[in-house]
Amino acid sequence: MTDRYDLIIENGIFMLPGGAADVRIGTRHGRIATLDARGDDAEQKIDAAGLYVLPGLIDPHVHFRDSGNAELPEVETLETGTRGAVLGGITAVFDMPNTSIPTTDSHRLRVKRDSICGRAWCDVGLYVGASKENAGRLGTLEGEPGVCAVKVFSGSTTGDLLVEDDVSIERVMRSGRRRVAFHAEDEYRLQARRRLFTSSRDFSKHALWRDSECAALGTRRIVALARKTGRPAHILHVSTAEEFLFLTNHHDLVSVEVLVNHLTQFAPDAYERLGAYAVMNPPIRDRNQVDAAWRAVAGGLVDTVGSDHAPHSHAAKAKDWPDVAAGLSGVQTLAPVMFDQVQKGRLSLGRLVDLMAAGPARVYGAVGKGRIAVGYDADFTVVDLKKNRRIDDTWLVSPCRWSPFEGERVTGWPAMTIIRSNVVMREDEVLATPIGQVMTFRS
Ligand code: DOR
Ligand code: ZN
Fold first, then answer.
1. What's the CA gap between 5 and 26, in Å, rounded?
2. Could you tell me whether strands 31-34 and 25-28 are parallel, antiparallel, or unpaired per DSSP bridges?
3. Is the CB of 179 under 6 A from ligand 1?
4. What CATH number is given to the structural domain containing 35?
């Protein structure tokens, strides 16, 4: 007897949890129904000959500058950010709360959640921001639909969200039980060192100011509080050898994110080439730190890789250091730049899937995401690993109109993005309507 599916994907190399395999996937009602659709038929068939089929890649770290209403449409919106995501082969994003109106209460979460249907091209999870005021309510807020995690800024960066002292961070950690995500640079050292440097257009000062000790101190403080409270933590954008070494002893409780920028860009080169467009928090550091990040990837310490997509206007980037806005756009380039690293032999495709699909799903508890398996969402990133392309501005869609990777050639390009059986991107074209949904997380 033949079965009928909504979609069959065939002839590709499929990256299953156990490795590359030759299967024939059938999907029904947006989910993977079988890995063995041989002899069966479907409404739509995709011939993936010559292509790799990965579980839908997730960018667990984006700042779309959209609190439910676009606050800076000339920089980014939920609509443009998610369009960039699907063009870049990303099927889901987790959006940060540090908008002008921060996402810190139930009302703001609802407004943001309600804005997703009809505007988002990919699926979306939402961070709820921690503050000294809402610390006691975070246990309830983290259980709201669509919430991927509580986000704590324990070092200051774009926006006003800041919980810097141990007493307040401990209150946050004692409210609720899910894994808490941290921007962990140490605020006290940041403030103390800022006055050591004079204003200028030498943007490499950024890495001297926010030195590796700022990051290491901050991470050590968060880990100590995680141990004290027993609360699992996720340290975002870990960027120093010292942090990686330290975290190897705490991986039972504390998971680790690395950013694509910290794997591929280094000082002084990045500051010389890009100037203000290399300024981000934590900063781009020297080659030794980049090598340490790759060792942590190879050794299995790193759980997730994200873009920290944080676009700013050209005007905000035109300011002198230290007034220049910190943050780099990247959701659209994350996957191609990481595919290029696979081609360069820096990680295997299997490890990329672990870091960019299985890892985010595991760390944040995303339901139905992160692997090609029966019953999981039919989300796929289809990749041409041989395609060599230049990242140019005609392809980039962010209204901010710049990327630190613009002009670079990469090998490996997303051919198709499929979300819950819907082909939303094919050969650089975004198709149909924005079908992105609010994601579900295990509470
Ligand atoms: O460089 C950064 N930019 N780091 C952050 O932590 C925040 C982000 C932003 O929102 O601009
Ligand atoms: Zn960020």
1. 6
2. antiparallel
3. no
4. 2.30.40.10
Closest CA to 231 of 139, 164, 122, 101: 139
User: Residues 6 or more apart from 430 whose CB is under 8 A from it?
Assistant: 83, 86, 87, 121, 424
CATH number at residue 354: 3.20.20.140
> Are the C-beta atoms of 155 and 187 separated by less than 8 Å?
yes
Which residues partner with 381 through β-bridges? 54, 417
| Residue 443 falls inside a structural domain | no
Ligand 1 nearest atom to the CA of residue 279, by list position: 1
Question: Do residue 227 and residue 284 come from a single domain?
Answer: yes
- Ligand 1 atom 7, closest CA: 158
Q: What is the pLDDT along the chain (443 residues), one digit of tens a residue?
A: 688 999 999 999 999 999 999 999 999 999 999 999 998 899 999 999 999 999 999 999 999 999 999 999 999 999 999 999 999 999 999 999 999 999 999 999 999 999 999 999 999 999 999 999 999 999 999 999 999 999 999 999 999 999 999 999 999 999 999 999 999 999 999 999 999 999 999 999 999 999 999 999 999 999 999 999 999 999 999 999 999 999 999 999 999 999 999 999 999 999 999 999 999 999 999 999 999 999 999 999 999 999 999 999 999 999 999 999 999 999 999 999 999 999 999 999 999 999 999 999 999 999 999 999 999 999 999 999 999 999 999 999 999 999 999 999 999 999 999 999 999 999 999 998 999 999 999 98
Closest by Cα among 219, 234, 229 to 170:
229
- From the CA of 326, give the closest atom in ligand 1: 1
* Residue 426 resides in a domain: yes
307 Cα–ligand 2 center, Å: 8
One domain, residues 89 and 226 = yes
Residues 131 and 210 placed together within one structural domain of the fold: yes
- pTM here? 0.98
Establish if 396 belongs to a structural domain.
no
- DSSP symbol at 348: -
Read off the tokens for 195: 């006055």
Q: Which domain holds residue 307?
A: 57-364
